[in-house]
Design brief:
36% of the residues lie in helices and 32% in strands. The chain has 135 residues and is α+β, with helices and mostly antiparallel strands. It has one domain (21-134).
Length: 135
């Protein structure tokens, strides 16, 4: 009986953890994206009025290093949005991965392996200096 009660208490927490990036209204969406960017520890600035690949993604640039970039890929339908993927260099994406997907992750072993898949998402080396984290 105690196990059932404990499970009943944990279910809302578990479902929140898995859905915190999905089915967001516009205010929640902006807060989630801001938190993801903040979790890098760098004061990235959103680049607006872009002339590059700008459909369904937000681009953030480190003002101290213009080559230090984060892309947040998302989708919206009927004013409900979901964050799907984050692209960044490994040093920026690892703290996000550790916080939201794998608190026990080891920075060096994950980098060496180049890929990790969990129920809560995946992370993989995408290109030479770019990693992809799916939420």
């Amino acid at each position: 009986m105690k196990k059932i009660f404990l499970l009943a208490l944990l279910l809302p927490v578990l479902s929140f953890a898995q859905s915190q990036f999905h089915k967001l209204d516009s205010l929640q969406f902006r807060k989630v994206v801001s938190q993801i960017i903040s979790d890098t520890g760098i004061k990235f600035q959103e680049e607006v009025n872009r002339q590059d690949w700008d459909e369904n993604n937000l681009k953030f640039v480190n003002p101290e290093d213009k080559n230090d970039i984060i892309f947040v890929e998302y989708g919206c339908k009927n004013n409900i949005c979901s964050v799907f993927t984050v692209y960044a260099n490994y040093d920026r994406i690892f703290p996000i991965w550790k916080k939201y997907s794998d608190p026990a992750a080891d920075k060096e072993s994950l980098k060496k392996k180049g890929l990790k898949m969990l129920e809560k998402g995946s992370i993989q080396k995408f290109d030479k200096d770019v990693w992809k984290m799916e939420l």
